[in-house]
Design brief:
single chain; alpha+beta; five-stranded antiparallel β-sheet; 13 helices; about 15% helix
Length: about 775
Amino acid sequence: MRKRPFKIGIVLTIVLCLWSIDSSGNAQNHVFTVRDSIEMTRFLRGNPQIQFSPNNQYFAIVASRGIIRSDTVESTMLLFSCEDVHAFLRGGVGAKAPKPRIVARLRAIPELGDPSFEISYDPVIWDLQWLPNSKGILFLGMSSSGNHRRLYETDVASTMRALTPPSQDVTRFTYANGSIVYKVTSPSHYVATSINADAQDLTGAPALNLFTSVLPKTQKDDGAFQNTYSDLWVTRSGKFRKITNEHTTYPARVLTIDHVLVLSPDGRSVVVLLPVASIPPSWSEFEPDPAASYARIKPHDPQTTASSNLFRPTEYALIDTVTTKTTPLIQAPMGITLNSAHHSGAMWSSDGTKVLIMNTFLPLEGVDATERAQRRYPCLAAVVDVRSTMFDCVAFGSYDYATGKHGAKLLLDGTFGQNNDEVVLHMLDIPNGYVDENYRYVSGHWKFIKSVRSNSFLGTQQPFSVAVKQDLNMPPTLWVTDTKTRASKKLWDPNPPLAEMSLGEASVLRWRDASGYQWTAGLVKPPDYISGKRYPLVIQTHGFQADEFLSDGSFTTGFAARPLASAGMVVLQMPDDDEHLVTYQEISDHIRGFKSAIALLDAMGLIDPTRVGIIGFSRTCYYVESALIKEPHLFAAASIADGVDESYLQQMLLYFDGSPGEAEAENIYDAIPIGKGLTTWIKQAPGFNLYRVQAPLMVTAIGPLSILLEWEMYASLRMQKKPVDFVYIPDGQHVLQKPLERLASQQGNVDWFRFWLQGYEDSNPAKAAQYKRWEALRKLKQQE
């Protein structure tokens, strides 16, 4: 029987109820709430999934919303006629926008605890790919139960069908010439070494698996995190077959998080990223991005190639789906292995004889000293002849490692030109926008020809472009723009009721702290803001997008910017300062930012500096916890969720996970927490200094391991009889997606800060137990 990890007296809050919303008054008086944020319709963040058909007759887009009543996320695929859209654009002021056709709709409860849901507002329909004949669209969709994904097809007449069995969890697919190759997750757990029927050896086991389940070894594989790996399947003419290793007959396995999967024009060969089983000593010479020095490859460290290492090195390879023969294309790690930020992917030439490989390192052996020195850094794009596996680098990256300065261009994608001897690299030139760099193969080398400015790296042959428009105060809407006249019209508003709401005002706030560092943040005022009145302030952390409608914040875990403002508070959405990432100075940088922001808003007469709260999530939990220790009187309340704090217990739990950042805290404190190094840890690690914390703190754990990662802080504060609340969301993703989980996290923070900063308690009977618990914490605070 599994032991209960909690003793009497430990309070866990599992919030699975609906908060009532005061809907009195007319629509114009209605303010923006957490419920409104959850149920508003949105497009995929950063990539609205606008897909034109090959014949340019249609374009499709996906929109999603949460439904609190059913605790589901609903995604809808909408199809627009390009002819109708163009006619609308050319029409006069009174022209009516064409209505989209719904060709697919799915509702699901997202419960996959993997990187599939790492971005706020993720849909349950994604990865749209038109068939070459423009009669249908292939896409991935979440099952209604939320525990697996299936491959679907819908035609332009709105007939949708599933193509893969319900038992398979599909994460990616590629289509060509009637064949589909797709990835299916292979749920498995850490494979232990059996001592006997009743005992196992767990040496080197990751903590994550020790607290899920450890299974006896049942097959000849090397074990893995649950869902870390996927098997490859191929389907032709309705027949399904798993692709196996040509030598072992075991499944060909790829990392689930790797997105490269590109089928050749004849539908026979597929380019993938394969985990590297053994690493040449020379790979230690490859240079990682300087901001991620921990990512340097360690050839002799067994953890580098351990199956439990989610970030183990991978290389581009070619698999013949008929013979299952596997051939490495470039025997060197792909760029992301060493944190290269350029786009990673592959593109076949039209005749299927060559492949354009993007963001990869090149082998160091067999070249002269000059070439070897250059190859220590990533190649943006290389062309590989698949018949001979000979390759040439088209262009190397623009990072100047000698001076330590980043180049201004980032690779977004690449294609072949009119023939195999031409390549176009689509780049983001940060100060100037998008550019297309043209290269040609001349006299045995790739030569730069010219650079051409472009409106977007996606491109379209339509007489109009389609884009999602939004800003800090304008919710997202779909617009079309004439490519010649640049005239624009709003095509579709997915949230008409928001136009009648009192949203309050959001604006950009810029200031410099004492070090001269300039901060750029988002400032949200209450809808009924009164000039000269001083309001409570809540600082939200971990990112600011100035070109996005500011509803929640950088993520949907914990943050609730506009609902907090609607409750009568000023909210400041702050970015991160990564200048001294993974150093001890990282903390002082952010605390200086918090202090200077509070001082500025106080000087502006906007806030009451005695009523300031702060929210941390993920990495910024470290910043918030440290600020509560080093500046104990700065904040009147705080909240953190599912994050790191670089403390002793987290170091011990995460050390064997095999990730590049497993020794991150050691780098920060320049010591290990043993012997003399422990003295440094006691002085600097937050977990040893929690006696200085004065602010009431809400702690949210997401998933079983998160309980342990947050336990040191929670237990210490409770031991000291300091006001601390512990909220547990058992099945959530790191970035919360399920409506009820978001409601618990985001509305919970609204209630928490209203309680401590305004002395307010919601009269909803469903929250009676919550306030009874918090009143007890207030008594503890009064006794300090």
